[in-house]
Design a protein that fits this description.
Length: about 525
């Protein structure tokens, strides 16, 4: 598409979006616009059509696997899905025989805090099968990555980018750990929403230490400005109240835990009484907060109310309010004996991992055996709640909180899916939590999330059946990223390039740009 036509296409899409009101004008409009332009750009380059033949398709709609299928990709789109031999292939189509392989949609990572070199983090997501990410604390680097990916100069996923964390004053964070807006009253809270929109973010990220009045002001201003808000349910706000404000997704399992206890009022009073020492750095603020929170969370576990939980899950399901459990980061912080170096660390620069053990020790060290048992019980209860929410119809989205220690970009999502099935989800439920479910919640269901005709061609080819064992999502054979076929051999070559870039990186260790236990 010539530049003039591509510009007009973007302008027409945005003009159409401008007539929408409320939360209809959301990150999904921006993401659809970007996805459409990227698709048109790729299609205009005359890419040779590609047919993935004799493959088993797991389309993530919930339908059973379809065997001996052909998926035809032209430009950046899937143009046909049908029985091998029954799909008419355009002249010059490249046929790739994938007998014995499985095709699933590209995976969607719903909660990340990405930091690191250009040549490592974006390509690592894509090469692990993650073709869309939602960045929960955006800054200039993420926008630069998105622009380069869209221009074709950098391999990486589609990027949905939030604004700075909006938290109470003093925050659990400091500005040196990433973009941050501290607010102390509703007026400042409203300005934070307006600033986030002016700066081009796709959504507002709210945080734990907001007071109730400021949180409600954010919800109202977000509606006025036509920008979604999401993030933590603040310590001072009941989840049942937050559901009614338009809160798009609930991040982590802390809020559902507190909302399902018979002693919620007492425990929330205890949460509100926790103070933050503004003279400390972010890591120690968070450590102090965690040490104060864990006894309250254990009290919530001990006073779990099944009837209250069923009512909550029904309300979440009715509102379509999704939960992003991030069990992976909960396990890092609450069951630290599982933390260990894995083979995927070879793809990360030393500057990205050198601080992981030290910071995790700061966050989790010093627990007595009794405290450690109680914190582990909290984690196990949170995992059980995830399965209960799924049974209750609550949309569950897979996100990891990558950017925290021991969570390798892209690969950590496979761990999250495994933790879901360990908690009690079926492999299909786990798979859909990283495909169809987030695509629907983020307003992208007509673009990504399933293997269907007309969707953008983000596909993962696996060596083994993920419905037999969800851990098979790790067994990536090949990929299609925005219409680009990455064969097994090319993927191995590109991963080797990432590994070399990691070894060559001489940046000093820097936890300041990462989420580091911020969640």
């Amino acid at each position: 598409m010539p530049d003039e036509k591509r510009t007009r296409s973007r302008r027409e899409l945005l003009a159409g979006a401008a007539v929408l009101t409320g939360t209809a004008l959301t990150a999904s409009v921006v993401a659809r616009d970007r996805a459409t332009v990227a698709a048109e750009r790729t299609g205009a380059e005359g890419e040779r059509p590609c047919a993935l033949t004799r493959v088993t398709v797991i389309d993530a709609t919930g339908a059973p696997p379809m065997r001996d299928m052909t998926v035809l990709v032209e430009g950046a789109r899937i143009t046909a899905v049908g029985r091998t031999g029954a799909v008419a292939l355009p002249p010059g189509t490249r046929e790739v025989d994938l007998a014995g392989k499985y095709v699933i949609p590209g995976l969607i990572e719903s909660h990340v805090h990405s930091a690191g070199p250009d040549g490592i983090v974006p390509p690592l997501y894509a090469l692990a099968g993650v073709t869309t990410v939602r960045e929960m604390r955006g800054d200039a680097q993420h926008h630069r990555w998105r622009d380069r990916i869209e221009s074709g100069s950098l391999l990486g996923p589609r990027w949905i980018i939030g604004g700075p964390i909006v938290d109470g004053r003093p925050s659990l964070h400091t500005a040196d750990t990433g973009s941050l807006i501290e607010v102390g009253n509703p007026s400042e809270a409203r300005e934070a929403v307006r600033r986030t929109k002016r700066d081009g973010a796709d959504f507002v990220k709210v945080y734990s230490r907001l007071d109730r009045a400021s949180y409600l002001a954010i919800a109202d201003e977000a509606r006025r400005q036509g920008i979604p808000f999401t993030g933590h349910c603040p310590d001072t706000v009941a989840l049942t109240e937050a559901i009614g404000t338009g809160h798009r997704t609930v991040e982590h399992m802390d809020a559902p835990l507190l909302a399902t206890t018979a002693r919620e009022r007492e425990i929330r009073a205890g949460m509100a009484a926790i103070t933050v020492d503004g003279t400390k750095d972010s890591f120690h603020r968070y450590r102090d907060w965690y040490e104060a929170v864990h006894p309250l969370e254990y009290k919530a576990v001990r006073s779990f109310d099944p009837a209250k939980s069923r009512a909550l899950f029904g309300a979440l399901a009715a509102r379509g309010c999704a939960v992003v459990p991030t069990l992976a980061v909960h396990r890092v912080l609450e069951v630290p004996e599982h933390n260990r170096e894995t083979d995927e660390w070879k793809y990360l620069a030393p500057s990205m991992t050198a601080w992981w053990r030290e910071v995790t020790d700061v966050m989790t060290g010093g627990r007595t055996p009794r405290q450690a048992r109680r914190v582990r019980a909290v984690y196990e209860h949170k995992a059980g709640l995830v399965a209960a929410m799924a049974r209750g119809g609550v949309p569950i989205l897979a996100g990891t909180d990558t950017g925290n220690p021991y969570l390798v970009p892209g690969f950590a999502l496979h761990d999250e899916l495994a933790l879901f099935t360990e908690a009690g989800l079926t492999p299909m439920q786990a798979l859909r939590s990283a495909t169809q479910r987030p695509a629907t919640v983020f307003g992208l269901a007509d673009r990504v999330g399933t293997v269907e005709r007309g969707k953008l061609a983000d596909l993962v080819v696996l060596d083994a059946d993920p419905l037999a064992d969800i851990r098979n999502t790790r067994r990536v054979h090949a990929l299609v990223v925005n219409g680009r076929l990455i064969t097994h051999e090319e993927r191995e070559r590109l991963l080797a390039e990432v590994e070399r870039a990691a070894r060559a990186d001489k940046s000093p260790p820097n936890a300041g740009n990462a989420a580091c236990c911020t969640r």
